[in-house]
Amino acid sequence: TTGSSSDSDSSPTVLSVEDNPDGGCHIYRNGYYGSSIDVVEGILEVNIIQMTSIQMTESQAENSLVDFVVTCQGSLPTDVCTVVSDPTCQVSKSMVCDPIAVTDECLLTIRRAFEEPGTYCINITLGDDISQALASALISVNGGEST
């Protein structure tokens, strides 16, 4: 039950009644309740604006490397996670997380390796202490080339 206090303070008084299942008695609590809410901006949006295959010599071609250029809006991220899944985005094949240092503009390049040619679903998540934002894309990796 909530009511007004009888003194000159106009703050509401909170009265709570709890049942004690063992003894059947009641506990009465009187007091004031206060709370504050901090609104934080967080990371609002992530976009993959470019995907570029890194050309390597045949002797280096164990894995195909792809650079993802990513932008974001809102607060600056402190870490990035990349999840590589099957083309349906249902079965995860690998996950890599790294700390990042973005100083004034959210524009970063993320390099990831692919062990074999194929079509993959890529989820890139940017995060900080209070928020996360995700961007997804399908990519086709063809032995050193991507589309």
TrEMBL record:
Picking any one GO molecular function of the record gives: integrin binding
One cellular component term from this protein's GO annotations in UniProt: plasma membrane
The gene name reads Qnr71
* A Pfam family matched in the record: PKAT_KLD
Q: Indicate what this protein is called per its UniProt record.
A: QNR71 protein
| Lineage top rank: taxon | Eukaryota
Lineage from the top down? Eukaryota, Metazoa, Chordata, Craniata, Vertebrata
Q: Where is the PKAT KLD domain?
A: 71-121
GO biological processes: cell adhesion
Its source organism is Orthonyx spaldingii (Chowchilla)
